[in-house]
Structure formats: structure tokens, C-alpha cells
Protein: Serine/threonine protein phosphatase 2A regulatory subunit
Amino acid sequence: MGALRNSPKASQIKKSTTLQHLFDLEANSSDDTMIYSPESSRQSIIESEYGEILSIISHCCSIFTFTDPLESPSEQDVKRLKLFQLLSFMKKPKKPLPVEIIRPLVSMLSANLFRPLPPSAKRTVVCELPGDEDLFSTLSPAWPHLQVVYEILVRIVLNIDPKVLRGYVDERFLVNLLSLFQSEDRRERDSLKNVYHRIYFKFTFYREIMRKSMNDVFLHYIFDSEKHSGIGELLEIWGSIINGFTVPLREEHKLFLMRVLIPLHKAKGMQVYHRQLAYCVNQFVQKEPMLGGTVVRGILKYWPATNCQKEVLFIDELEELVENIDPDHYRKLALLICTQISRCLNSLNSQVAERALYVWNNEQFVKMASSMMEEVFPVVVEGVQKNLKWHWSKSVKQLTENVKTLIEEMDPDLYDRCLKELAHREYLAGQEDIKRKENWERLELAAANNHQFFQPQNVYMHHVSERRI
Structure:
């Protein structure tokens, strides 16, 4: 046996067996390498670590309209619970989410948010006041789900690096998000405002695109439809954006003021968003007081002629602008502003007249009027005297007396001179009326004489024609 063990044949068999064994081991190792590749290994880790989250995301992709009677209320409640589980997970992430979770998560959010909105309930109704909007708005029945979805979206924007999220929250996503501002549900618009605002300030590479998209919405509203529920919310976002502008302002931002913000004053539904609009305009004037003249002329251009509620709002805004205008522009704008205020204090609507009279309690307004007393006083004195003589409201007359006392104390001599000039103009106007009446009387007398002169001739011609017949 020992000879056989040491024979050449035995050693050859052992060697060959050993080589075959090595070949088998290499083949097995290559198969194992193919099975446990890095991608499959990562996928298995994701499934083991985030399997429950992926299952929740998949379940939340089911959409409920809340209007279909065939939908199960219990299934709706289950989805809401799943959404809350997902929200609690997003609030306390242990580590950055992998791409394999972000992609289906954003897809789920898109499926829930980007939906066709119901037809507007305000097609033939123009809201006159901010409170009126709620009377005609439609609340979304899907809000129990949408509310949680928006909170999840906020957490995604806050917790995930914008560079990582850029591939999923893209321009198309932002356009769809902007279109949802047409929702009539104020709760949804508030959530949208929060999300859109956070995206603007975190995703700096999208800022120019987002500004342009919002401008397009404004221009379409001004010059085309005048139907959009989210103008106020978009203006609130713009108010924060304008607050961050550096001085001197870029030409692009000045054009936005002149071509978008000022024309927004002319829309029928301006009362709903006037507070936000006035804030944006005043932000511009505070940053560059030299723009005050452009803004004042623009507001006077769109001054309402028949809408008293809008007129009161315009007076409020004009008074606030006076406080921010560059004092060097007072002399250029004093006559324009005081002329418009004088027209308003003569308004037959007592609210408009009283609001215009209260402007004289503003120190900056009085200072502006004092800078051009020679030009402003004749207009103001005429308006005051008209109110004292003709206005029907006792409260308006009382306030007018206060204004009269104020301007009389500013320059008694000039006030007396303006009264005399006004009396002289009224005398001349009275003389013109007398002459006009005398001319009409002469014309009527001449017409009566001509009628008497031509009447016999007409009778004679009538008889001659009858005889010829």
C-alpha cells in the first residue's frame, strides 16, 4: 500500500483531483459574485431596511375622490393612518433618505396633489371684500388626505438636499404646483403658499423660473381672465421676495413693479388681495423712494370711478405711500395727490368723503401740501367750501370744519386770498349763466316770432294746393 501511495500513478491522480477541486471552487466563487453584486446587495439592504416605508408609500398611491359612493370609508381612514405614519417617519429621519425611497415618495405626492380641480363656483360672482370669498368658495372633500400630503412635502423640502431633490422636484413639478393655486379651498392655498415659498428660498437655481411663472399668472389674470383664487397668496410670497431685494434694485424688478403690480390695481376683484398688493408696492418705495412718483401716477391712472369700496382702499394706499415717498418729490406730486383727495372729500358717499378728510390728520401729508401751498390751497379751499355748502352728511360737514380750521391756521393770508379768488370765479360763473340764459331767451323769442311770421304763409300755400287739386 505504501508502494501504491508513492507510485507515479497515485500522485497523478491526486494532482488532477486537486486541480479539479480548484476549478470547481473558482466556478462557485464566480457564481456567488454574480448573485451578490453591489446593486443586488444594495437593493436587498434597501428592502430590508425600508421595506415597510416602501409598502406604506405604495399603499398611499391609491387615490380617493371622496365623492364616489362606491369608495369605502374604512379604506379612506386606513390611507390617512398610513399617511400619518409616513409623516412621522419624515419628521425624524435617522439618516439621509436613499434615492430608491425619494423617487417613489415624490411620485406618490404627485399622484395625490396633481389632479383636475372642480369648476369654479365664482364664474359669475365678483367678490367685493376678502370675507366675501369664503361665501362662494368650495372646500375640497379630499382635504383630510391632502393636508397630510402637503406636510410630507414640506418635510421633504426641509430635510433633503436640494441638489439631490432636483432630479425629482423639477420644472414640471413646479408648474403643476403653481396651477394648484387656483383651488378655491383657502386651506389648500395656505399650504401651497408655505411649500412654494420654502422651495423658492431653498432651491436657488429655480428662483428665476419661479418668478417668471408667477408673473405669467399675474399677467393672465390682469389682461385675460380676471379669474384666479390664489392671487393674494402669490402676492404674499412676492412680498417676502421683495423684502430680500438688494439696493439698488435691478431693472427686472422695477419692470415687475410697473408692468404687473401697478396694473393689478385695475382688476374688479382687487379688494380681495389689496392688502398684499399694497404691501408689495410699499416695499418697493421703501427700498427706492425715487419710485414713489411712478407708483403714485400709476395708482391715479387706475383710480376707480364708481366703486366706493375700492376708492377707500386707494386712499389708504395713497396715504401710506406719502409716508415713504422721497421728500424731494413732494413738490412734483403734491398737486396731483391733493387734487385727487379734494375730489374724494366732495364724494356723495360719506365713507369716501370721511376717509379723504381723515388724510389731513397725517403729518407727512400736511408737510407735502405745505411744500406747494400756492398751487395746492386753491384746490383744497374750493373742495372745503363745496362740502360746507352742499354736502348732505352732518359728520362730513363737521370733519370739513376741522380741515378748514387746519388749513386756515397754516397760512391765513393765503386762505383769505383763495376765498376771494373762489368768490370771484363763482361771480364770473354766475355772470356766464346769466348771459347764457339771456341768449336762450332771445333765441326762444326769435323762434316764436318766426313761427308767427311763417304760419299764415303756410296756411296760404295749403289753400292754394287744395284749389289746384
